[in-house]
Amino acid sequence: GVIATAKHYAFNDQETNRMSVNSYIDERTAWELYYPPFEAAVQAGLGAVMCAYNRANGKFSCENPEMLRQDLKQKMGFS
Fold first, then answer.
1. pLDDT-derived band of residue 17, with 50, 70 and 90 as boundaries?
2. Measured between alpha carbons, how far is 17 from 24 in angstroms, rounded to an integer?
3. Are the beta carbons of 9 and 50 closer than 8 angstroms?
4. Whole-angstrom Cα distance, residue 1 to residue 18?
């Protein structure tokens, strides 16, 4: 089968040093600039989200409970 996947969640705006960069993003910037494409994908019924390689606000994207549980699941409604 095929599954729609949005990537790279989130704040991944460069390829150079993407494994070590730490992006500091405030909540307003996140919701106005970075989250809208992911929110639209969630509303369209995507089946998976791939985390970015970078750190976001000091935590790796795949280990960031604020980004994953709070923003992606609770606020955007991804399940």
1. confident
2. 15
3. yes
4. 30
User: Using a CB cutoff of 8 Å and minimum separation of 24, what contacts does 69-73 make?
Assistant: 71/30, 71/35, 72/9, 72/38, 72/42
Q: For residue 51, what are its two tokens?
A: 């985390």
Q: What pLDDT, on the 0 to 100 scale, is given for residue 77?
A: 97
Q: Which residues of 7-28 are buried (b: 16+ CB within 10 A; e: fewer)?
A: eebbbbeeeeeeeebebebeee
Write phi, then psi, for 71 (nearest 5 degrees). -80, -55
Q: What is the per-residue pLDDT for 18?
A: 80
- Spacing of C-alpha 21 from chain mean position: 15
What is the rounded distance in angstroms from the CA atom of residue 55 to the CA atom of residue 19? 8
